[in-house]
Design a protein that fits this description.
The complex is a heterodimer of chains A (117) and B (112). Chain A is mainly beta. Chain A is 3% helix and 49% strand. In chain A, strands 2, 4, 5, 6, 9, 10 and 11 form a seven-stranded mixed beta sheet that branches. Chain A has a four-stranded antiparallel beta sheet with strand order 1-3-8-7, with no helix packed on it. In chain A, strand 5 and strand 6 form a beta hairpin. Chain B is mostly beta strands and 112 residues long. Helix content of chain B is 0%, strand content 58%. Chain B has no helices and eleven strands. The chains are: A mainly beta (117), B mainly beta (112). At the A-B interface, strand 4, strand 5 and strand 10 of A face strand 5, strand 9 and strand 10 of B.
């Protein structure tokens, strides 16, 4: 079954440093997302991306965050200057376009655990 | 208005019993209601989903019941097994929203 692949699985960074979280969505999917989950809390939407641009972003997704699809296969989330409160699991997700079940079929990766120290 | 409420926060069920998790939403524009299962250290995995044009959907031991007028939906896990122990998230989304909104989650423990 196709998977969304995320790397690294765990990233430790010092406060103020830049981090890039990487994702390889399912190859024929058109819509890409980042969500985060602070330990023990709910999964929160960060940003959606379609046709090489952001289609929607949440209040959490401030100027410190950016996303990019640099080469047609990878989808990255960059945090420019990390804060302690950015520590969380970050999940990438993708879904297909068109109509029917593929329109709604979000597939999530296993996540990157970001620890800011 | 985009909030999804979920209860209970945690649930302990004996093996073979029925696990029931309830969710409620406010925004009538939602037209897609998935349930996700999450094991520790893993991402949410789609378990089952329903559209509002049906009141019930069953896949194996998992059933979604949907009440459009009450804006509520629930997950029933029949013959619960220890391997079902996980966190379950209901969510809502649809054609008007380029995302899914997650409920706060229910931690299910199935004890032998």
């Amino acid at each position: 079954e196709p998977e969304v692949t995320q790397t690294p699985s765990h990233q430790v960074t010092q406060m103020g440093q830049e981090v890039i979280l990487r994702c390889v969505p399912i190859s024929n999917h058109l819509y890409f997302y980042w969500y985060r989950q602070i330990l023990g809390q709910k999964v929160e939407f960060l940003v959606s991306f379609y046709n090489n641009e952001i289609s929607e972003k949440s209040e959490i997704f401030d100027d410190q965050f950016s996303v990019e699809r640099p080469d047609g296969s990878n989808f990255t989330l960059k945090i420019r200057s990390t804060k302690l409160e950015d520590s969380a699991m970050y999940f990438c997700a993708s879904r297909g376009g068109g109509t029917g079940s593929s329109y709604y079929g979000y597939t999530f990766g296993s996540g990157t655990r970001l620890t800011v120290v | 208005q985009q909030q999804v409420k979920q209860s209970p926060q945690s649930l302990i069920v004996q093996k073979g019993g029925i696990s029931i998790i309830n969710c409620a939403y406010e925004n009538t524009a939602f037209d897609y209601f998935p349930w996700y299962q999450q094991f520790p250290g893993k991402g949410p995995a789609l378990l089952i989903a329903i559209r509002p044009d049906v009141s019930e959907k069953k896949e194996g031991r998992f059933t979604i019941s949907f009440n459009k007028s009450a804006k509520q939906f629930s997950l029933h896990i029949m013959d619960s097994q220890p391997g079902d122990s996980a966190t379950y998230f209901c969510a809502a989304g649809g054609t008007s929203y380029d995302k899914v909104i997650f409920g706060p989650g229910t931690s299910l423990s199935v004890i032998p």
